[in-house]
What does this fold into?
Amino acid sequence: ALFVLPKSRNKGKAKEASSNAKSVTFRSYTKEEISAHNTRTDCWVIIKDKVYDVTSYVEEHPGGDAILNNAGGDSTEGFFGPQHGFRVFEIIEDFCIGELKHS
Ligand code: HEM
It folds into this structure.
């Protein structure tokens, strides 16, 4: 007998769609608050006083684990390094969750 297994084609797509469609509440975060998100499974960075949750991008990053250089801290200097072309400055905005609170 020949069994045809159903293909679960949209599994990956559904995941992608839901992660892109997440609703984000923008707010201000203190440095202390941001610094708690400093691992590869929970990675926030500050770039020019804005806060980005790049967790979902850690495994995608063409520059590898270098994205974790300043996990939970300020990545501005490294982010504007010569390795990043202009496109990167647009992509990063998809990950913005708010701004740095100045205390
Ligand atoms: C062609 C695509 C990319 C390449 C080749 C690349 C490469 C690199 C490399 C080599 C570094 C290390 C820089 C250093 O150690 O000084 C780096 C750092 C970093 N990249 Fe990328 N990257 C790419 C795209 C992106 C994108 C799209 C994002 C954001 C969504 C991103 C976010 C970061 C961050 C946050 C750092 C850490 C900066 C720091 O804290 O020092 N990269 N990247």
